[in-house]
Amino acid sequence: MTQRHFVQNDHRMLVTTNTRDRRPVFADPVHAREAVEHLYRVQQEMPFCLFGFVIMPDHCHFLVYVPAPATVSECMRTYKMGLTFQIGIGAFWQPRFHIRLVEDSSAALRYIHFNPVKAGLCENPEDYPWSSASGRWDVTELGMVG
What we know:
By secondary structure, this protein is α+β, with helices and mostly antiparallel strands. The chain has helices spanning 29-45, 72-87, 105-118; strands spanning 12-18, 49-55, 59-65, 98-101. The chain is globular, with a radius of gyration of 14 Å.
């Protein structure tokens, strides 16, 4: 099923997707690592700019720019279906996701990176391993696109 978001590409977007019933699938470090690694596999298959992300125990945030002709719905469908297969624990996603168009990319990135701090999972954003704030993962420079 394709979502009917007004904007599908060519804008910076903060995308949020939740697990069904807020199940803490990504509290398992093996699943969290696979969630990050699968994000990069999807990016190779259908190129998009990834400015930042966080994989929380029960949801994910991505700051992205999806150039045409690709769409954010295609990217998210590929991500969620592929990750469900890779993890192998059955269906665990809510069927939809949320998009906010981003005017202030720095503020959106701060929101993403401070999510684990706010949730009490770490003291500093860079301490959380499943986030672009950790410095362990490659992301696109904010000024590069859009």
